[in-house]
Amino acid sequence: MNDILAYAETDPVLAENDDGAREAALRTELLVQQYELLAREDRAILFVVAGLDGAGKGSAVNLLNEWMDPRHIRTLAFGTPTPEELARPMMWRYWRELPARGRIGIVFGSWYQALFAQAARRARDEEALESMAAAVRRFEAMLVADHVQVVKLWFHLSRDAQRARCARLAANPDTAWRVSPDDLKVAKRFARLREAGERVIASTHAEPCPWIVVPSADDRFRAMRTGEVVLAALRTPPPAPSFAKPVKVADGRLDNLDYGDAAMKRGAYEKELMHWQARVGRAVRQARFGRRSLVLVFEGKDAAGKGGAIRRVGHALDVRQYRIVPISAPNDIERAHPYLWRFWQHAPTPGRVTIFDRSWYGRVLAERVERFASRRDWMRAYEEIDDFEAQWVAHGAILVKFWLSISDDEQLKRFREREKTAFKNFKITPDDWRNRRKGSQYRRAAADMLAHTDTPHAPWHVIATDDKRTARVQVLRTVAQALERALSTGDET
């Protein structure tokens, strides 16, 4: 990139003979396009505001709220993380605030804070910088692919203009509050901050989320340019981001699963169950677990015993320490956001256990088979899910995923038993029978899921469940051993 900030440092101004007609026309069209976005609800728009302190970012955002309907704009200001935010993975605070389709969000203090801080260090870590930039690129591409348009504005001006603007505002008691200590330090550190800005822009300036530099020395020029950028975004959706199709990988675990193990006798079952429940309980009561969390994911065929396995895990825990999150088809609010948004709402916190009865894997299972998600959407989901899980694990989550599998004959037997038994009748629905008729499609989707999302940080545990007792013991043993490994001295995060 050829010095993308150079033009902004010439401090252009709006022509003296501008009579305000251009501004009036711009304001009218901004409102028209905002209401059209609300009516279509085809996407949300996030305007990411960044740049030098003291460049007028706040003034530009205030003006947008004045020119447009502020009832449908959310200004999302992120400062120093709160204790609630620090207790969760870093991206949680951004995910939870994403606007629904048809709405606009303006982001201050975005996911670029840490990246800019690293770039501005005297001895910056280039490897860490590139890793952070790559994470930002993946995050933004995922948002765009899931109907969130990301428009990034970098506000910039020359050193002299920045110093003069701060002095002018500070001299007036009514505007002095707009000048922060950080604003006053910019002029002294201008060269280093400018170079850091160039580095950040260069590492994250890519389709479908390029940077747009807004010259900010002249208030009216800054306002008009900002309005024009916003209008262009409202008028034109971004191009669909490219993605690499997943390489075909075979996973034969479902083909080679043995359903014929002898049934575990009741006495042995109760003894084993109590043993492994006790080990799970002891593990989560360790002081070390107070710095970690446990996330259990249960997926599998209908009637494979997910509910029974979850209840046995719950019996090992203090009821105040865990929660079960049942996942069904998304509601209207959830459909108006990116598909991972509703799962980020349940991001784990230290010392807690979260159990998902079905999960984000619906995108590559039911949504794929029932064609609720396009082929492009579910194919790119494998990489997005791996990245999502890696963020949780990096924050200290011990993530254990189960695929519970049942033979076709045993599934049919359990279906019929549910129909005949009054207290089990609620468990059988027409959807269960329809899914059974699509068994081969679900099996293929499950095999692909296992192949593409079995990672070192979040491996799959495939368990045959024709014998419920054996399966429940295996689940508890797996959870206990995963906890004990993770909480051992060598593996502590």
UniProtKB/TrEMBL annotation:
GO terms for biological process: polyphosphate metabolic process. Keywords: Transferase. Residues 17-234, 265-486 form the Polyphosphate kinase-2-related domain. The keyword Transferase applies. One of its GO terms (molecular function) is polyphosphate:AMP phosphotransferase activity. SUPFAM superfamilies: P-loop containing nucleoside triphosphate hydrolases. This is Polyphosphate:AMP phosphotransferase. The gene is pap.
